[in-house]
Amino acid sequence: MTVTALPRVPYTGTASQAELERWRAVARQVADTLAADALARDRANKQPFAEVQLLRGAGLLELLVPAEFGGAGGHFETAFEVIRILAAADGSISQLLAYHYINQSGIAFYAPAEAQADWWRRTVEGSWLWGDSVNPVDPNLVLTREGDGYRLNGAKRFSTGSGVGEVIVVNAQVEGSGELLAFVVPREAEGLRIVDDWDYLGQRLSASNSLEYRNVRIEPSDVLGPVTDEPVATLLTPGIQLAFANFYLGIAEGALARGRQILLGRTNAWFLSQAETYSQDVVFQRTVGELKARTAAVAALAEKLGRRFDQVLGGAVSQPQRAELAVAIAELKVVASEAGVEVANRIFEVTGSSSTKSDVGLDLFWRNVRTHSLHDPVDYKKIEVGAYFLRGESQPLSLYT
Questions:
Q1: CB 260 within 8 A of CB 285
Q2: In the sheet where 192-195 sits, what is the strand order?
Q3: DSSP characters for 253-285?
Q4: Measured distance CA(238)–CA(246) in Å, rounded
Q5: Closest CA to 328 of 308, 313, 299, 300
Q6: Which of helix, strand or coil describes residue 65?
């Protein structure tokens, strides 16, 4: 009998036009619902259980789950577009879904091929939202062997989705061995304390709480697998950086759309202008044109790399391929983060002082992109791009590169 080896990751091919159009329509419908009260929900700063249910009801949580396990069988290109569309309406919920996609796909990037089917089926049956607790600059976790499993102690900040997710992906080193494991902790696990302390400038509904672990039992069945430097497994980090770039792009597009709405609603013009309205004034047209052109350029690069990510992921990934893709995504991260911050800031130049009124909500775009664009310093992405371009040097593998 011939035994066919299972693929390391279950993703194949690229998104069809029909797939893209289907999920764009779903995302736009969800975005319209979120946009209706995005500012009020941001101000309330409550855990986004209702928003997660909206995502769940739309089928977005299973978009990337292979069809043979009950999911939609979608592609990362599609998921990135969904993130971008939602970000134009509600940056917090876009981030929540973006992290879910990356955390959930940890099944493919960490678990051995023969163990993945059970994980995929469980996430579909439970309709799980996946949070995380992997912040690498806050490595205050101790994972101690106990029998055939482990005990987890310590604390983590910035654990996106942990306040509302059914499960949380955790990375921690096994005490005494140095082995780094990825494993899954249910939100209701005994000894896990969710600290509702996420009160920041923006992204207020991303459920990015702090977590405390007090002798949390980790069973062998909770372990996804080791975190290794296998090229295909390390694509997880470029994947989340690509999600970030689409998130920043979506915020820029949302700020432009809201700014356009405000500008077209102004019936007068500046007293020194020869135009009848602000939108007919070439000064304001020039600013909007500049911001729109820069955003369109970022969008073109994002769409290209979304498809390329699926193409690379579906083949035998070599380290040189991985490095080249990571740098290309770093290039996008640089221009997307800068465009997002610039557009969300400068849109006020064309909408005027009245647009700073609290109930207008234009500030929400800037607060969201300014908060998340500090996730990891964009200057280090510029260094990564420059070192590769000049000398072909790749940065050391990490959860940021």
A1: no
A2: 141-146, 149-159, 209-218, 192-195
A3: HHHHHHHHHHHHT--S--TT-SSSSGGG-HHHH
A4: 12
A5: 308
A6: coil
Structure tokens at 392: 């072909």
Tokens coding 6: 């299972």
pLDDT in tens, 104-122: 999 999 999 999 999 999 9
Q: Are 136 and 400 in contact (CB under 8 A)?
A: yes
Q: Which two tokens stand for residue 361?
A: 């909500």
Helices marked H in 127-274? 236-264
The average pLDDT across 283-291 equals 96
Cα gap 144→122, rounded to integer Å: 26
What pLDDT, on the 0 to 100 scale, is given for residue 8? 73
- Average pLDDT of span 340-358: 95
Strands in 130-133's sheet, in edge-to-edge order, are 130-133, 167-173, 180-186, 223-226
Q: Closest Cα to residue 360, out of 259, 281, 268?
A: 259
Closest CA to 348 of 282, 263, 231, 245: 263
Q: Which residue has the tokens 């970030």?
A: 244
Q: Is 174 left (phi over 0), alpha (psi -120 to 50) or beta?
A: beta
Cα 393 to Cα 262: distance, rounded to the nearest angstrom: 47
Structure tokens at 255: 């700020």
What pLDDT score was predicted for residue 400?
82
